[in-house]
């Protein structure tokens, strides 16, 4: 890394998702983060003040910051995922802010799909409720590497340590059952600012970090799968220029592991072996490539490779198959149909598939398996089996979020109707 | 053990390059919209890196209102020339002359809205199935809801309440004949990221972004440049000031910042302490609470 990429040019990027409803203080928390980190500008603040007054509100309604569409502002609800940005001197943050109600499960899943961390708000008065379990379930299903449980409105329970510990114990039972990873607990008051940016004077018994301190310091270098070298080929680069007459480069983004020049690799679907001759990026050669870098790989041998091919380590290879079990989150108002053909996108590969079996559905509020009703509609989550027209080269989603995820597309409408996580 | 991490600028760069390559792979006839502003310059720089050593596999297209800063046009032409990229220019004036668009009247008149007509006509005429733009989610609240791959119906319209879910890095560019996509490769960049990246990569920028002396006048608290087609209102007077552009668009709606910043480091410093968004100086956004959403629904950039 050059000397130039230091200081403010050298920050880590953390993506986190927040799910919640109007009442649990989510907007207040986000508003405070944005305001305290100076990511809300004066003209935005003026616009919100104008709009708050226009709606007859007395206090400035920070939800208006994230509710960007006219319909959202009119109805006072968040419909869609809203992306927000802020930075501290240590990290740059991308928030995927999603509505928390059960009818917006698909938006929560969307926001969670790219997140390093999930922020779950719990009202200290209410404790772990149905909605909390739902958010924890989605965080576990989407394998979000870190979970931050903010026990909010601590001011309304007199900053009582016992209440906090009780909620913590309740949530950890849920998390153990679901397999949530790296769970952190914070006692906060988003409204008054306790333990958000500044350490609270009201929680002497709490020795952990503030919310912003935690966001700044959660280690994220192991969030990507660095063990399994996977490189889905996106595009073949063949310059039509005399100087690069024999150039043939495979452009893509590293989906897992570390690739090195000289490494022996296997290419799928053919299974042919070769060695990495060079790794190019924007006119410079580099010795290795790892996620989430976008690079161009050249191989020593001329083998048949096109978009949809997968390059892996020669020894550490992906699974392959045409009958695949997965968890699916249904995103469409049109219910899933058995035996119907769907288009499937997996890495840079495309295939057609049909759903051969619904194994069970999940009640995401009680976390129970449902086996007596196998109709899969909007916002449902189910374990299914599919059969594809050609082999996929994949890993389990638990191992690798890039090579373990896929989407289903309705051929009639071209809409994305299902999000799949391979088991 | 070695630490396999990259910084925020390199991660954003990798994401944008991934999106640009998806466009080249998924669409038959894509085009990159180019305004000559910093966002489109960065987007084009990313495209050059994405396909190197091959040329960028799509043309650039400028929707020209005719109300430009001279520096923008010169910069645009030189960039296309030096990189061997095909440049298409479509003129709003042609849409007006053919009666497809009607010019606004009065001192607040702007051709900004009319660009939509010219743009949609160009997409249809040239049979583009994808138009990439330098829009960023942090710019404006309607843009915060925008997808990387944004579907447009055969009228070129955006339906914000009925967008396709976008998960992981799986972008669905499937469409019916006559429909097209708008793709925003730098969706996740902030104004600060853009400037930091320009510094990191040492990207050449039009002189307008740096401080210079110019004849300007003030309207509704915003400094605007004097130009032949700008009508002055009573009480407005032209004076010379040291200014620079924070965004570059049509001259009629581009607010100038009083500034002495003459280096990228100075500009970054200025962005860091600014308490007003970059679009705060854009008259086109001030028309109503949902000005951007309404324009986008009709097919604006």
TrEMBL record, chain A:
GO biological process, one term: sulfur compound metabolic process
GO molecular function, one term: GTP binding
Any single Pfam family the record assigns to this protein: GTP-eEF1A_C
Top class in the EC scheme: transferase
Sequence ranges assigned to domain Tr-type G in this UniProt record: 11-230
Keyword annotations: ATP-binding, GTP-binding, Nucleotide-binding, Nucleotidyltransferase, Transferase
UniProt cross-references to InterPro entries, sorted A to Z: CysN_GTP-bd (IPR041757), CysN_II (IPR044138), CysN_NoDQ_III (IPR044139), G_TR_CS (IPR031157), GTP-eEF1A_C (IPR054696), P-loop_NTPase (IPR027417), Small_GTP-bd (IPR005225), SO4_adenylTrfase_lsu (IPR011779)
Top-level division of the source organism's lineage: Bacteria
EC number, UniProt record: 2.7.7.4
Name listed for the protein in its UniProt record: sulfate adenylyltransferase
Organism of provenance: Prolixibacter denitrificans
Gene name linked to the record: cysN
UniProtKB/TrEMBL annotation, chain B:
Residue numbers spanned by region Disordered: 282-301
Superkingdom, taxonomy of origin: Bacteria
MF terms (GO), sorted A to Z: ATP binding; sulfate adenylyltransferase (ATP) activity
Matching Pfam families: PAPS_reduct (PF01507)
Enzyme category, top tier: transferase
GO annotation, biological process: sulfate assimilation
Keywords: ATP-binding, Nucleotide-binding, Nucleotidyltransferase, Transferase
EC number of this enzyme: 2.7.7.4
Domain Phosphoadenosine phosphosulphate reductase per the UniProt entry, residue ranges: 29-255
PANTHER family: SULFATE ADENYLYLTRANSFERASE SUBUNIT 2
Family as reported in the entry's similarity comment: Belongs to the PAPS reductase family. CysD subfamily.
Record's protein name: Sulfate adenylyltransferase subunit 2
Organism: Prolixibacter denitrificans
């Amino acid at each position: 890394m050059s000397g130039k990429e230091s200081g403010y040019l050298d920050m880590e990027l953390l993506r986190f998702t927040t799910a919640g409803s109007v009442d649990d203080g989510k907007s207040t928390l986000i508003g405070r983060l944005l305001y305290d980190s100076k990511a809300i500008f004066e003209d935005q603040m003026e616009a919100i003040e104008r709009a708050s007054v226009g709606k007859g509100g007395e206090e400035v309604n920070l939800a208006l910051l994230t509710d960007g569409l006219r319909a959202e502002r009119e109805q006072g609800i968040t419909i869609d995922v809203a992306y927000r940005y802020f930075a501290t001197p240590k990290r740059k943050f991308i928030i995927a802010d999603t509505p928390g109600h059960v009818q917006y499960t698909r938006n929560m899943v969307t926001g969670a799909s790219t997140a390093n961390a999930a922020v779950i708000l719990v009202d200290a008065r209410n404790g772990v409720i149905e909605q909390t379990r739902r958010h924890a379930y989605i965080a576990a299903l989407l394998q979000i590497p870190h979970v931050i449980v903010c026990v909010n409105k601590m001011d309304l329970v007199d900053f009582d340590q016992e209440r906090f510990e009780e909620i913590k114990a309740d949530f950890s039972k849920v998390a153990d059952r679901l397999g949530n990873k790296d769970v952190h607990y914070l006692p906060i008051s988003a409204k008054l600012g306790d333990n958000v940016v500044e350490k609270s004077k009201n929680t002497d018994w709490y020795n952990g970090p503030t919310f912003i301190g935690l966001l700044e310091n959660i280690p994220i270098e192991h969030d990507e799968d660095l063990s399994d070298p996977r490189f889905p080929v996106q595009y073949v680069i063949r310059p039509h220029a005399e100087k690069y007459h024999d150039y043939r480069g495979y452009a893509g983004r590293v989906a897992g592991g570390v690739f090195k020049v000289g490494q022996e690799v296997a290419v799928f679907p053919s299974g042919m072996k070769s060695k990495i001759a060079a790794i190019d990026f924007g006119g410079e050669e580099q010795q290795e490539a790892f996620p989430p870098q976008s690079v161009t790989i050249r191989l020593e041998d001329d083998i048949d490779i096109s978009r949809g091919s997968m390059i892996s380590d020669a020894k550490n290879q992906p699974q392959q198959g045409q009958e695949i079990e997965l968890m699916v989150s249904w995103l469409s108002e049109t219910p899933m149909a058995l035996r119907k053909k769907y288009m499937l996108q997996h890495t840079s590969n495309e295939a057609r598939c049909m759903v051969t079996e619904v194994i069970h559905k999940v009640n995401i509020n009680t976390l129970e398996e449902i086996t007596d009703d196998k109709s899969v509609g909007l916002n449902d989550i189910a374990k299914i089996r599919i059969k594809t027209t050609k082999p996929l080269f994949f890993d389990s989603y638990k191992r690798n979020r890039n090579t373990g995820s896929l989407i289903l597309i309705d051929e009639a409408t071209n809409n994305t109707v299902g999000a799949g996580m391979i088991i | 053990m070695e630490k396999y991490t990259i910084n925020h600028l390199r991660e954003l760069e990798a994401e944008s390059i991934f999106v640009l390559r998806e466009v080249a792979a998924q669409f038959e006839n894509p085009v990159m919209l180019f305004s000559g502003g910093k966002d489109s310059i960065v987007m084009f720089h990313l495209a050059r890196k994405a396909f190197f050593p091959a040329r960028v596999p799509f043309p650039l297209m400028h929707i020209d209102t005719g109300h430009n800063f001279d520096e923008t046009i010169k910069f645009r032409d030189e960039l296309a020339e030096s990189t061997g990229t095909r440049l298409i220019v479509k003129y709003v004036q042609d849409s007006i002359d053919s009666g497809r668009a009607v010019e606004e009247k009065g001192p607040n008149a702007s051709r900004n809205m009319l660009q939509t007509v010219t743009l949609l006509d160009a997409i249809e005429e040239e049979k583009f199935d994808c138009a990439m733009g330098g829009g960023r989610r942090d710019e404006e609240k309607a843009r915060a809801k925008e997808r990387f791959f944004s579907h447009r119906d055969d009228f070129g319209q955006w339906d914000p309440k009925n967008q396709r879910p976008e998960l992981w890095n799986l972008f669905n560019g499937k469409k019916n004949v006559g429909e097209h996509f708008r793709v925003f490769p730098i969706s996740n960049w902030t104004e600060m990221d853009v400037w930091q990246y320009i510094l990191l990569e040492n990207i050449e920028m039009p002189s307008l972004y740096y401080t210079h002396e110019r004849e300007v006048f003030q309207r509704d608290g915003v400094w605007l440049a004097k130009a032949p087609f700008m009508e002055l209102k009573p009480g407005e007077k032209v004076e010379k000031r040291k200014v620079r552009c924070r965004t570059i668009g049509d001259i009629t709606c581009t607010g100038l910042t009083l500034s002495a910043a003459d280096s990228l480091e100075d500009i970054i410093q200025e962005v860091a302490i600014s308490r007003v968004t970059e679009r705060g100086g854009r008259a086109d956004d001030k028309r109503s609470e949902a000005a951007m959403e309404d324009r986008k629904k009709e097919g604006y950039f």
